[in-house]
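Sample entry (402 residues):
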Amino acid sequence: MHLMKKKVVIGLSGGVDSSVAAWVLKEQGYDVTGLFMKNWHDTTGVLEGDCTYEDDIMFAEMVAEKIGIPFLSVDLSGPYKRRVVDYMFSEYEAGRTPNPDILCNREIKFDSFVKEAHNMGIKLVATGHYCRKETVFVNRRMIHRLLAGEDPKKDQSYFLCQVTQDQLAGAVFPIGNMTKAEVRELAAQLKLPTATRKDSQGICFIGKVDLPTFLQQQLKPRTGRTVIIPAGWDFPAYGRGLPEDGISDERLGEMSGPYTYNPGCGLTIGKHNGAHYFTVGQRKGINIGGYKEPLFVLSVDSNNNIIYVGEGQNHPGLHRKGLLVKEEDIHWIRPDMSMKKGEIREYDVRIRYRQALEKAKLYRREGGMYIIFDKLQRGIAPGQFAAWYAGDELLGSGVISS
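Predicted structure, serialized as tokens:
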């Protein structure tokens, strides 16, 4: 008896990861369709020599032909601009640092793109992410677990920290149990056109950009002051202690809050073209010399158009004990494991891609989720995402409020 093959749409990007993912799916017996997403048209600020849309779609089509699968393309630039780029501009304008790749996965790859697949009558969608999915039953309910990729150097689960159970239900990650080296080797053996193509960098679907030039599409330059904060500044000691389980909300707020500076602090050492072009921990673009060690951004004051900087990567203003995720921004990939108010748990936490997981205590309170780390953390940036793990499973995440 002839069995109907399971249909799946693979997001073909023109890169080696999605190319090998498509081949793996076909080898596993799926009925595979390659679908290319066109999400951005404007090249303002995109650095020359980086991958272009024309190159990407050409490689994606060549891969589909080589593997022997149908190839289609779809223009999702409308929702991408509204739900990712406009959000990105508004966050920078407010002095925060967004993560467009996480938003792109939540809003485009696992939403708009999935809807396109559903319009084709296909329920399964695959990507070339280095992560894994496992489906289990908990109290007779089907639960989808999002697991780190087998390659610790390439694990991309963090980028999917905002997906939902519904989005995971139809997701397939064909190369999650492979290393990058294995993917490259297999692509070479198969003689895929993308075997030696460089990995894409920069903003999801836009590429590597000169950020100030890119942001100037909507955020105009405004001359402001660059103020240096000496390492011996009177930093509060509350960020250096260890929390107790019976800790008060007030103390948690102190331990998770950023160091605050006012316009009268420090010494003005130069000018910049707009505080909204900078982020906490940034080194490039300050353009002020004469110091023994490089200068880093400690804080961004978009209201007064001031950036506060410190000398050296070990400056105390760069290191904090904790952070806050507001109530409305707490997201659980595993709703069945969500914390009740007043509950305390220990998890491993990541505040940026490729950062090593750090031990922390999570305190669920009325104001949200306070995350207090065992060790001081460098460059906690409002607007970025904190993601918490139990072992290799990503359980939840949230936007860093402060």
